Here is the input.
Amino acid sequence: MTEQSQNLPDADSYDPTASSLAGQVDPAVMAELLSIRSSIDNIDATLVFLLAERFKATQKVGFLKAAHKLPAGDPGRETAQIARLRRLAAEAHLDPAFAEKFLNFIIGEVIRHHEAIAEDHEASAQRTTAATAAADPAVAAEA
Here is the structure.
């Protein structure tokens, strides 16, 4: 858990009507604002679950790359993905520069995860080799 998330209220204490504008604006305007914000809250929740699914898939990629000693990053794939998402963003009337920044952030996290998976995989392989060598002196002589 990050330090920032430790300071956040838990889900049970979330108040979708919380606003520093309460009592300062016309009740009809406040009701419309809260209705729109409810949609935003639903979209935000969906984004979190979609990102979780995406990271589950990229974790599988990380394990595959580690097992085959492939590099954590794939610049050709990353360039193609950025171009693709910039194009999709433009079609969706979303700022392509924002889409690129967002994807670059995700790519950076994925690479960081892949590097950690590779380090863990390598350390595990070294422990296995050491344990096997300790149990069988003939294996130790081959290593």
